[in-house]
Amino acid sequence: LTGAVDEAEFLLANRDGTANVVHAARADGGTARIVLVSSMAAGGPAARGRPKGADGLDAPVTMYGRSKLASELVLRGADLPWVILRPPTVYGPRDRDNLITVFKAARLGIAPVFGDGSMEVSVVHVEDLADAIVLAGTAGEALLGKTYYVNHPERLSSAELVREIGRTMGRNVTLLPIPEWAARVALTATGAWAAALRRKTILRADKANEFFQAAW
Predict the structure, then answer these.
(1) Cβ contact 113:162 at 8 Å
(2) Are 178 and 111 in contact (CB under 8 A)?
């Protein structure tokens, strides 16, 4: 679950749903390998210029990230064969939630970036992620019991990413910087509106904790 009414709903789907899978695997003999598609959000942000590794120094900054880390902890505590993958932003065909909004904005020749656009980001194409999931499920036993970040080796700034999207569409994109205070006000308002109506949303106050980091 990427959007929820509150943290309890995130945990119900991501943590408890994983626990249900673990329970089912145990009931079936406990020999099947479980591949958990977690998220970079579970580990938390990185320092600029220093890629984050799966070293256990996890510090998620959102409800979503905490629920994904909770799902990982459920699996790590199970006496079953498992592999955990932590993808960043996924792009490619059929995208409905990630970069599609940036493509739509770039088509108009203007696109927002959070802060000054210097945040370092990693991304992964959906087909590459699918290949990684298959490998995690089928490759040798040396992979078992480990957590892997799966992303392209290139690092981009958020501004470079937006400009690259513009270039693929034949557009020179003008960047519209969004200051942190404005983003926090807007996200607090949308989150409060969604909570009042009991509607799921990814646009809530703590999302700004992701948007204004040095690196992901």
Answers:
(1) yes
(2) no
Helices and strands (H, E) in the chain, number of each type: 7, 9
137 SS3 class: helix
End-to-end CA distance of the chain: 20
CB 96 within 8 A of CB 40: no
Other CB atoms within a 10 A radius of the CB of residue 130 amount to: 13
| DSSP for 42-98, written as a single string | GT--BBTTB---SSS-----SHHHHHHHHHHHHHHTSSS-EEEEE--EEESTT-SSS
Query: What span, in angstroms and rounded, lies between the C-alpha atoms of 58 and 190?
Result: 28
**Is a pLDDT exceeding 80 seen at residue 208?**
yes
Tell me the sheet residues that pair with 90. 124
**Predicted TM-score (pTM) of this structure:** 0.90
Q: What are phi and psi of 213, to 5 degrees?
A: -115, 165
Which pLDDT tens digit goes with each residue over 39-65?
Answer: 999 999 999 988 898 888 999 999 999
Residues in CB range of 38: below 8 A, 6 or more apart: 68, 69, 71, 72, 84, 85, 86, 147
User: Residue 156 has what DSSP assignment?
Assistant: E
Helix 63-76 vs helix 7-27: crossing angle, to nearest 10: 20
Distance from C-alpha of 102 to C-alpha of 204, rounded to nearest angstrom: 19
